[in-house]
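User: For my dataset I need records formatted as: sequence, then structure tokens, nothing else. Please produce one.
Assistant:
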Amino acid sequence: MRYSVVSASVSMPYRLGRWLLGAAMGFYFARIERFHRERVPRAGPVLFTSNHPNSITDAFVIGASVPRKVNFVATVQLFRWPPVRWLLTRCGVIPVNRLKDDPRAMRTVLETFEACFRVLEQG
């Protein structure tokens, strides 16, 4: 199954999700410290990586803290339910076919990396 990558424009679902995440993060965490936000370019490619056991929380904090649109990657399994696929696609999430989900998926993995590169090139 092929999935399209939404452009770098900011959609209404993305803006609403960002606002909700910001509110949830402010409610859930007593304090979120952000360092070196000035190093994040306002335009052009940038790559955020997290290395924590609960990577979904990292994605939420990054999405709520970074002052620009962020495209995330997520397992292709999240895209199998049509309402979730619709939302994730509108928010610019890029599906990744993990090899443990489908060992024959190397071609799709390469296509996904190409989609990621296109998003980075768009800024």
